[in-house]
Design brief:
- Helices cover 32% and strands 20% of the residues.
- With 414 residues, the protein is of the alpha/beta class.
- The chain folds into three domains: 1-15 and 190-197 and 330-414, no CATH class; 18-167, no CATH class; 202-319, Trna Endonuclease, Chain: A, domain 1, CATH 3.40.1350.
- A hairpin with a 6-residue loop joins strand 11 and strand 12 (251-256).
């Protein structure tokens, strides 16, 4: 069967920043939830968002965009402390073509494509009431629940304290946020789905989904145990939940998605038959080392990424929950080093630095799980299993040449 690498033009996404905005430009003590929601819905209707700390004495009757000079003038007059200054610096970096996500009091989430830089509300326009600096969006994509968003984006919204505005630094989260917007507005997206594998599945799940997965893993290996619902306490820091059996000691676990776990804290808890430990940042090698280190503690069982990934592949409930943003498959290029050796035989040259790529259109650079071809704007990334063009100035001829060498390598005879 002839194989072809997937190709995507994601130029719109690559030049954009994504922002998470906490749309509460007033003192919450002065307003009830009903008034807050009414204000937020008005902002949605008028395709606008912004920050508070408003002063009516600045920039009167002038349309003022947020630049460095105006930012300094504003901060001289208005001392809102570090929270205000940090928000202002971020708003100064927002530009047309960026994307913004907000969650309002009724738990609906909106993602918008920004149409202009931040301006000062010098004329006290009604739709920007309570705001100092505000931006407009082309349109809002509405999600009635955060459950309709990619798991890792949902995790960003679940943080207890949300700053006024935060830039989404993760490139993968940024792509997923733009994919959600495009799919909702246009019915399709230029952004490929994320390929779930044993090396990245934890980052595809939120903390609740990961705990559910570990729970299923434990259930399958301990038939005479039931989960005690009252043990699932958020305030219980050391354990996630407890399983009971009428015939044996209880079982418990500790699960962390992207954090360390100090196993020493559990070695003395011998009242449990078994304590399962899983951390999403531990590799297979790290788990092997820890199993060797703690093998004398027979009640400690450390779960490896491969074991939990095998469980995920069979857990169809989570497949449905992951929705259209993720897929279970193997990347076309499974080993970048082997692929590099193959294309080198066909005349391509490896370089060590990104700025060397432009010197030879048939050069390539491997960085982590990404391989760049002739420019840093044309690359294959294993996480999305696609060849992507991330800038409009990459020629069709360059894309065609790279696609041909990839397809040729994928279809070579053993």
């Amino acid at each position: 069967m002839h194989r072809e690498v997937k190709y995507c033009d994601i130029s719109e996404a690559d030049g954009a920043n994504c922002w998470i905005v906490n749309l509460l430009p007033f003192n919450k003590a002065e307003c009830g939830d009903g008034e807050i929601l009414s204000y937020q819905l008005s902002c949605i209707k008028n395709k606008i968002f912004g920050m508070g700390w408003q002063s009516e004495h600045l920039f009167k009757n002038r349309s003022v965009s947020l630049n460095e000079e105006n930012r300094k003038e504003y901060t001289k007059y208005y001392d809102g402390g570090s929270a205000m200054e940090n928000a202002l610096k971020n708003y100064a970096n927002i530009k047309a073509g960026d994307f913004v996500m907000i969650r309002i009091k009724n738990s609906h989430v909106y993602i918008g494509k920004i149409s202009e830089k931040a301006k000062y509300n010098s004329n006290n326009i009604d739709e920007a009431n309570r705001m100092s600096w505000y931006c407009r969006v082309e349109s809002w994509a509405e999600f009635e629940s955060s459950e309709n968003l990619p798991s890792e984006i949902r995790g960003r919204l679940s943080q207890r304290r949300q700053p006024t505005v935060t830039r989404v630094a993760s490139y993968r989260q940024k792509l997923l946020m733009i994919k959600a917007y495009q799919t909702k507005i246009y019915g399709k997206s230029t952004i490929p789905t994320v390929v779930i594998g044993k090396n990245n599945f934890c980052r595809c799940l939120d903390y609740k989904q990961l705990e559910d997965l570990v729970c299923m893993y434990i259930y399958k290996r301990n038939k005479n145990y039931i989960l005690l619902p009252s043990s699932c306490k958020i305030s219980q820091q050391k354990y996630e939940y407890t399983f009971l059996s009428p015939d044996d000691h209880p079982i418990s676990c500790q699960v962390k998605n992207q954090s360390e776990i100090n196993i020493d804290e559990y070695v003395g808890d011998t009242g449990f038959k078994r304590i399962y430990i899983f951390s999403g940042i531990w590799s297979e090698d790290a788990v092997r080392q820890k199993r060797e280190e703690y093998k004398k503690y027979t009640h400690i069982e450390i779960i490896s990424p491969a074991e939990l990934y095998d469980e995920l592949k069979e857990f169809t409930y989570l497949h449905e929950a992951l929705g259209d943003y993720y897929e279970f498959s193997e990347p076309d290029i499974t080993n970048l080093d082997t692929f590099a050796a193959d294309i080198t035989k066909n005349g391509w040259s490896a370089v060590k630095e990104q700025d060397e790529l432009s010197k030879n259109p048939e050069s390539f650079l491997i960085k982590g799980d990404t391989i760049y071809f002739g420019t840093d704007k044309l690359w294959y990334w294993q996480e999305i299993n696609a060849l992507c063009k991330s800038a409009g100035d990459v020629s069709d001829e360059a894309v065609r040449a790279v696609k041909e060498i990839i397809d040729k390598t994928l279809n070579k005879k053993s």
